[in-house]
Design brief:
about 900 residues, about 50% helix
Length: about 900
Amino acid sequence: MSEDGRRQLRAAANKALKDAPFSPFLVYFYAALHSKAGEYLEAGKIVQDAMARLSETKHDTPEEEARSRRTFAALKHVWRVVDLVAREQMGWLDTSGRSAKVADGKKKSVSFKEPLLEARNVDGYLSACQTEFENAATPHARVKAIADMLRQSVRRQYSYHKAYALAEKSIDQMTEELAGLTADIDPTKLDETEAVHIVNTLLSALGTFRTLRQAEGLEKIKTQIEAFAAAGAPETAIWLTLPELVLDDDPDWVRRSRNIRRALPVAPTKAHEVKAYFKWALWVRAFEEADRIFRKIPQAQRETVSALYYVNILQRQSRFEEALEVLQGLHVRLLCQPAKLNPLQHWNLLRRHAELQFLIDTADAFAAVPQPQDPKGVLVIAARNIDQLRKYPLVVLMEMRRRGWASVCLVEGLLPRESTGNADIDLLNGCITMECRLSPEAAKVFPQLEDFVAAPQEGRIEWMGLNLQHSLLEDARINRRAYDVDFTCPALTGTLQKLCDWTELAARATVFAHDRLSKQDIRAGFTALFNSRLPDTLFRLYCDKVGDPKSFFALQTANGYENYFANFSHEISTRCVIRNVTAYNEVRSASFPRPAFFEEYYQANHHRAEEILETVEHIATAKRTSGPVKAIDPEAEACEAQIHEWRARGGKVACLFGRVVCDSAVPFDGGPVHADFKSWLLDSIEAVRGSDTLLLIKPHPHELNEEIATYLNQYFFDLLPDDLPENVIKLGHRWFDITALSRFTDLGLIYNGTVAIEMSLLNIPCIQANHFGPIDYPVKHHVPESPEHYRRMLRFEDPVAPHPEMRPRAGLWLDYMSNGRFALDYRYHARPVTNKVVYPPYWIKEDLDTYLKKGDPHVSLLADRITGEAIEPSA
């Protein structure tokens, strides 16, 4: 939409709101237009003002009161839409929860506790939930209040122990009440409304027991529901139970649910029945029956949101165009009844529409380069969803198809289903369902992993002696946005368990492929986006152990560290790198040059170092503080005076550089002296205690940049001890940039990071403490040989002079990384550069059209690097 079109629509919506100020549709429309223009704070105020005015409005009749409550509920959904947009743009609507409205139990009281949840105001949110629980007038309202206690915000909290403890205590109080819902009643005499209410209450409780991982409560509710159905409860209520009985992947309950299904009519008729049926059919994979049922149900039901699960069924089978057609039909019907529109549901429909269109466009692009028959190789990707799919270099997959390599995705419903004529490769294509299970066909053939152990509550995952455990820790840190992780947090345990499940399935597929394809002399490359997260890291570690660099290998693809070189000037990646990390496994990431290649490049070009430095030095000296600094901070001024005074007395100054603590992006941690980042930090502080070294501790400026940090729960300074020595100073994020530090810094302390390059350009020597530091940034900084050696260097008792090649090496490293020969031009589809959400995904049509007509030498070169016909630049 053009900016002019957006302005016109906003003006029209604003005018209409004057006549209907409480119309949820108009408020939603108006607020959404502001949000997408980046004005989410203004959009939030629009919604909050409407809610405030509505809650203060007096009503003369019960009908008006009921209508007002429905409107207020719809406006809450509008607020959630606006907050989702704010989250995607790395912002907040309410950082404290002050806009929340907590119900007080009075008849006309309304509740709006969402801001407390999203502000991570744990105590305030749980107090609101408990108040609702205590004031609830019905069992269903009480169970809903418990379910709300367990909700996780889109900005993750550090711990959910309090929430789970309160939920467990509350659900325990309802044990007798839940059992009594179906006791001493004759289900055959219940009217449909009563029966549906009872079942919905039991299903809400079932969901709570599932989240709490309480197997006994789960089984008890399922058995109660089954008995209620067998006793003759109205069929319209029994439809609702079908999907909830099978969500735990218990084969026995799948069988029992089928027995219940056989006792029901051939096809559902009411909206809630249709929704429940298709959700059940999706889970038990009754896809053919679902097609028949969809044709049988009334047209009106096909065009309601009840049919959304059928859309998912179609996607699972790669029937993308049919899925979009169904979605468009229900979307049109929904827009014809704006008064009934659920804003959050509609927002998700818009995103779903764009997702399906992306899958259709991807399938069309792949159709232009047909899947090879009897391929000589296969390129495997492991995208688990559409967001991950668009981050893979899809056009490179197309190029490989031209060269006789098949392309398959292990997870169904993302790429088109195309036969290769090879039964084993075809079985790999979509062998894992989106529900994280093997397809029935794969389950019969793929080997079991006898020695696979997953205990995420202990921070443990083991298989074949591979170091999967570090990746589990990395995922835990990223999920909780913290360095120190509490693996006993029940919410985190559930998340990590799912990652372990994905990893086990990916392992079974990989073992199958290794066994079958190796015997057929078919080359296989398993492509991953991440080098230190599950399940992606599995491919690299497995191929390191049993693979072969030429025939069965792991690949990693990335954007070539583009966010650093672009300095956040654009949101969409325009570069791509791909590396065979089985052949070149010494480097942690495909985004960094191999030391051997860089060394050759340096030796061939060092005579041009000063010339190159003139063209690239600005990259590293760009301002990377997290906001404008209008004047010198008085504290920074006083700090610098203190530093110069220290130096005037003959003391030395070292600066320790921090990082965003939750993201190390290494396949294993530690270095020649230290076990991990935190031990390095603490050891550095102790090393200078009582010495003539003044240690400055500088936090990373990206901690204040949500596009990178993304709602941290723990910051670098949180890792520091309380008893800092007097000769240790904590610097503010914005006090000094790297250039300013050069006025008074004698030595840099770096765990790992591009600051190694920036300090080199200033000719300031550094100590690199992480194993991958001198590999990622081979610029001749110091590397400790022992704990004693490290401490002597910090105390300036051992030489720490700058290496004469340090500055020219830094210049050539920048040139190597940015000149377009290592990280190659590649745009084609929207791949985000940072954590800022660029969604839904889309193809850049002019790029794709050009490739299909003329090809692309950069794409061809990326394919050559996969096959081994070309290597990365070395001269």
